[in-house]
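Summary for the steering committee. One of the milestones for this cycle was to obtain a three-dimensional model of the protein with pyridoxal-5'-phosphate bound, which we needed before selecting residues for the alanine scan. The sequence and ligand used are listed below.
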Amino acid sequence: MTTIYLDNNATTQVAPEVLEAMLPYLRDLYGNPSSMHSFGGQVGRRLRLAREQVAALIGAHPEEIVFTSCGTESDNTAIRSALATYPGKRHLVTTRVEHPAIHALVAHLAQEGYRVTEIPVDGEGRLNLEHYARSLTPDTAVVSAMWANNETGVIFPVEEMAMMARHKGILFHTDAVQAVGKIPIDMRQSAMDMLSLSGHKLHAPKGVGALYVRKGTKFSPFLIGGHQEKGRRGGTENVASLIGLGEASELAAKNLEKENTAVKNLRDKLENALLSLIPNSRVNGDRQDRLPNTSNISFEYVEGEAILLRLNEFGICASSGSACTSGSLQPSHVLRAMGVPFTMAHGSIRFSLSIYNTEPEINFVIEKFPPIIEELRTLSPYWEVGQEVCATRDFGGV
Ligand code: PLP
């Protein structure tokens, strides 16, 4: 059975060109990039090129890129650095819908005694900017807001938010793990101070990431050790995978237009077909300000995990908006923050596409998906009761 992979916000396949670029550094060129000898020196030079490639993708200077082990490390480094460099400030601002790399970190920091403000979102997943403006105080050390949401793809107005923070002398960090490679990013035109990205979301291997730190931003390392990364992150670099990240960044820049035309068209085709073929379904999140590859759709009165199991039988990979935690199915914190009704949140599926998806794959999903929902609904004790209620409800034409 062939795999139809529509779970690219979870992780992506390593691009063949990326693997090719990495192989020599796993096989023969195993020198330490910090060594004095030329065997290591050639590796150091190739790593410099990788840094330039990553910087070019986001319009940064190579010296502004600190290589890390993942998006989570980049996020933790950014926040911890801001707090360490402004020790007198005890307040952080973030949003209710961050990835756990930020969400769980700020919960931890709250336990350490920091004051945390989480900006709410509306039913479309859009931020309340007035609430945000009010939350910035002289005691605020840092704002951390994701560029694009991993579950819904909703894009936040991070540039506007960064300007507002800058006017008040507050550092601004963005978790751009889902945005990099999918939408244009130019840090030369930006007021943001720090940006996190992760290799495995843009066709590089897992276990590498980067933190952009604007020149002149005060910085305190998270991993203390050797002099690597100009003393900003100790530890011998994951050379081959970082070379992969560099190559993937160059590819992403080339494929950006395809991502916003071909990938978006396939996403829209899938989304529109499912909405029209399946009653009581609706998109979660703003359909305009959204990543081109992501569609999060709720199918009322079915469980997301049951849908995933049935999809799996056809080799179709997607994600659900509920996670099985300690035996109970809890809708995700993102859908709860958006106020998605329980019966909708439970049956939410996230499709996330990539440049490797094809039209025949999407046609196959459009053919297989509606009967799955129909069958699961006949098994649902709530479906018949719910339908009577639903008949009076407005699903916005979908
Ligand atoms: N931030 C966002 C928005 C993500 O989607 C993810 C991964 O899913 C991360 C951070 C964490 O990245 P990593 O898996 O590289 O630690």
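Key point for the committee: The chain has a mean pLDDT of 94.
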